[in-house]
Amino acid sequence: MPSAYQLSPSHVSPTSFCFEVPVSSTEYLTWFRDHYGPTMNAFDAPRQSDRADELFDELDDLFGAQNTSSDPAKTAIPATFLRVTVAVETALKVLMQGTRPGGQLARK
């Protein structure tokens, strides 16, 4: 693998984000089910076999268990993800390989 693709450990860090909304966790899940693409897709197969309500109930339990808000009318769900940062300059060098001066793609 070329060195342009290697990341040093300093470019990878766990990062936290809290999903905070002024609605109950059930209302928040309903929004995800109806408007957020990956969650909408997750409901497609169970909907075909009349099991969408079962999936909703399981996710509702999960949302409720992860909700750290003491107010039942609000949702606060903390999440941690792995943030990977790469230098744009390095990525541009890789993208520019095979281009003509001025950045136009060379035709093969």
What's the topology here?
Blueprint: E1 12-21, H1 25-35, H2 37-48, H3 52-66, E2 75-84, H4 88-96
Antiparallel strand pairs: 1-2
Helix pairs in contact: 1-2, 1-3, 2-3
Can you give keywords for this protein?
108 residues; alpha+beta; two-stranded antiparallel ribbon; 4 helices; 19% strand
Q: How would you describe what is shown here?
A:
With 108 residues, the protein is of the alpha+beta class. It is built from 4 helices and 2 strands, in the order E-H-H-H-E-H. The longest helix is centred in the middle third of the chain and has 15 residues, at 52-66. The chain is flat, with a radius of gyration of 22 Å. The chain has a domain at 17-84. The chain has a two-stranded antiparallel ribbon with strand order 1-2.
Biggest β-sheet: count, sense, barrel?
2 strands, antiparallel
Mean pLDDT: 83
The secondary-structure element order is: EHHHEH
Percentage of helical residues? Answer: 40-55%
Give the distance, in angstroms, between the N- and C-terminal Cα atoms. 24 Å
Which segments are poorly predicted (pLDDT under 50) over 5 or more consecutive residues?
none
Dominant shape: flat
Strand content: 15-25%
Structural class: alpha+beta
Please tell me how large the radius of gyration is. 22 Å
Describe, in short, the structure shown.
By secondary structure, the chain is α+β, with helices and mostly antiparallel strands. The protein is built from four helices and two strands, in the order βαααβα.
